[in-house]
Specification:
It contains two helices and 20 strands. It has 277 residues and is an alpha+beta fold. It has two domains: 96 residues, no CATH class; 151 residues, no CATH class. A hairpin with a 5-residue loop joins strand 9 and strand 10. The radius of gyration is 27 Å and the shape is elongated.
């Protein structure tokens, strides 16, 4: 009876956390490059009432273990890094990724990763995101402001375009230059990346192996080494499916209500015991 009450409490807590994840998904349904979260449950340690036994061979068969579960706990909260739909915008610095990979951006001290490709030019011509972080080509992005690998479009450029291979073609005085190339990165385990806000991710000890020779990160030009291609003039939408989230929300709500009923029923039984005298 008391066990059932505590089991109900764990169920309440974990269903509330599931609703928190669902609420965050729905809140970011229109966030560019957002990757939805998924909450899973797992059962807690069970109390052993009687262990299993094998058959004795004298007419009695074996018996199964008798266990009473002690509730549920969080199994995982995972980011699902599936491709979102590419929405055409027609803007030259709106960049989507068709396939695997993340843009590399830097604040001059640390490199972050993002699928949100809404970039702009600052007053010095550097390509930056909405937070002012520099878009990087291949090379160092952790020293200097701007870092050496920061990409830019000169203010005297007569025009520019960005190809599917990430090359930035700039036209100056009638001559084109395509030396700068946007770099993308992939990881051994993209789901191990840590969200840091602002549509950004940073690496963790489980996203890549920092002790390995290549650190578990592949950095290269779009379209090479399994990396996706750049779709200029598009933005990747959130991969949140509202219909799926509403179904998950209903099941989480019903689970929460059922666990509430377990607690109230256990309380009623306790009250009956108190009233026996």
């Amino acid at each position: 009876m008391i066990r059932s009450m505590y089991s109900g409490i764990t169920g309440l807590q974990n269903h509330q956390q599931k609703l928190d994840v669902i609420g965050n998904n729905i809140a970011n349904v229109n966030t560019y490059g957002f990757k939805k979260g998924r909450y899973t449950f797992e059962d807690m340690l069970s109390q052993q009432v009687q262990g299993a036994s094998a058959g004795t061979g004298d007419g009695l068969g074996g018996t199964n273990p008798r266990q009473i579960g002690l509730g549920s706990s969080t199994g995982s909260i995972t980011n699902i890094h599936t491709q979102g739909a590419l929405q055409p915008t027609g803007r030259e610095l709106d960049l989507g990724i068709a396939g695997d990979g993340y843009f590399r951006v830097s604040n001059g001290e640390e490199v972050f990763y993002t699928r949100a490709g809404d970039f702009y030019r600052d007053n010095t011509g550097h390509i930056v995101n909405s937070n002012g972080y520099y878009l990087l080509g291949e090379g160092d992005g952790t020293t200097g402001n701007p870092p050496p690998a920061a990409l830019s479009i000169p203010s005297n450029a007569e025009g520019f375009s960005i190809g599917a291979n990430g090359s930035i073609t700039v036209i100056i005085e009638g001559e084109s230059n395509s030396e700068q190339v946007i770099s993308l990165a992939t990881f051994a385990n993209p789901e191990g990346l840590e969200k840091v806000g602002g549509n950004l991710y940073r690496t963790t000890s489980n996203s890549n192996d920092a002790t390995a020779e290549n650190a578990g990160i592949i950095v290269g030009a779009p379209g090479t080494e399994g990396l996706g291609q750049i779709a200029a003039g598009t933005l990747e939408m959130s991969n949140v499916d509202l219909s799926e989230e509403f179904v998950e929300m209903i099941t989480a709500q019903r689970g929460l209500q059922a666990n509430t009923r377990i607690i109230t029923t256990s309380d009623e039984v306790l009250q009956e015991l108190l009233n026996l005298k």
